Amino acid sequence: MSPPYPHANINGSDAPEKPNVRLGFVPLTDCAPLVAAKILGLGRRHGLNIELVRQPSWAAVRDKLLSGELDAAQALYGLVYGVQLGIGGPQADMAVLMTLNRNGQAITLSNRLSEGLRQGRSLRTQLAAQTHQPVFAQTFPTGTHAMWLYYWLAAEGLDPLRDVRSVVIPPPQMSDAMALEQLDGFCAGEPWHAVAEAENIGRTAVTSGEIWPDHPEKVLACRRDLVALYPNTARALTMTILEACRWLDAPEHRREMAGWLSGPGYIGRASNLIAPRMLGDYGRTSAHALPLRFFADGEVNHPYLSDGNWFLTQYVRWGMAASSVLDGHLAAEINQTALYRQAAAALDIATADSDTRSSVLIDGRRWDGSNLHAYARSFPIQHDAHAAGHKAK
């Protein structure tokens, strides 16, 4: 396909200082903006040559961003904040250039637990009756999937750090692990929940958009020194991926993308397992599932400070960081709101009036980013950082 934006839109002063950019991605449906940018050649309009590099796990994304093997990557929102705080690994100053998508994740339960829920037995009751400790998988200790899983289990009356064992598994291995009866449930991105249902391994119990309607999910991330050293490159890359997100708004383009993602270099699963949920069709799973959003007239992509701060409150809640992380201006340092506004303005894309937004989550609590300490302390199920023993460095 010929790119929809064939003409360059740069001049000498705006030209990227680093024209060749290596972007990492993990084989998930929401890597679509990076794949669209590559296949459609959108980077050429902004003076960039993009190389996509598939990664086996989020830990690999982290490590290669830190080593410089990747210039930027599709990343879990919480991965960026976890690296910034040095939780469970190396610390580095990180940057969020833009949000890539909202919604589009889920929690799948084993067939046995799913059947119990359909018969009216609570998850808490079922797990308490098991003879083995329940095992739930997520994809990265500080990542979005861990936070959605913990939040949902707590809303169900379960302590995710005591009542279940949480393990980390790369997304493509989730359904296989459940098929081997190693997992009672898992939280990851698509299409791995669709795969589990198609293979009759498990059932989707809740979508992430039901846990936090229109939550932030993946981001375009890099080390902060890349923004400092190569600001034109960072802006050009943001513009390129913004155009890809805009292109993905059209349903016909999403169907085309599902075919591209099914290739062995990307997800490597049949497009009929990718396309339905990418288009918002969850079948019998849930009547309340919010669709995967990539653009929505630019509403999706703004790097809201309140989105980043939410993850900080959860790290404090689960004892992963001391409450002092809520005192500073970490989100304003990480989320490149000024650079994003420049990129969006150059593309005539509207930007948000404020860097904060509000939401009501599945437990009825309202989050608006106005009082981080009070919000973090408001949960009946939480852990102390000193007792947990893995606070931020």
Write the layout of secondary structure elements.
Layout: E1 20-25, H1 32-39, E2 49-54, H2 58-67, E3 72-76, H3 77-85, E4 94-99, E5 105-110, H4 111-118, H5 123-128, E6 135-138, H6 144-155, E7 165-168, H7 174-179, E8 185-189, H8 192-198, E9 202-207, H9 208-211, E10 218-223, H10 224-229, H11 231-247, H12 251-261, H13 271-278, H14 305-317, H15 330-334, H16 337-346, E11 359-360, E12 366-367, H17 372-377, H18 385-388
Parallel strand pairs: 1-2, 1-3, 6-7, 6-8
Antiparallel strand pairs: 3-10, 4-10, 5-8, 5-9, 11-12
Helix pairs in contact: 1-11, 11-16, 12-13
Describe the structure in your own words.
- This protein has a 5-stranded mixed sheet, with helices on both faces. The protein has a 5-stranded mixed sheet with strand order 7-6-8-5-9, sandwiched between helices.
- With 393 residues, the protein is of the alpha/beta class.
- It is built from 18 helices and 12 strands.
- It is globular and about 70 Å long.
- Helix 12 runs antiparallel to helix 13.
- Strand 11 and strand 12 form a beta hairpin.
- Helix content is 38%, strand content 15%.
- The longest helix has 17 residues.
Give a quick summary of the entry.
By secondary structure, the chain is of the alpha/beta class. It has 18 helices and twelve strands. It folds into two domains: about 240 residues, Periplasmic binding protein-like II (D-Maltodextrin-Binding Protein, domain 2), CATH 3.40.190; about 110 residues, Periplasmic binding protein-like II (D-Maltodextrin-Binding Protein, domain 2, 3-Layer(aba) Sandwich).
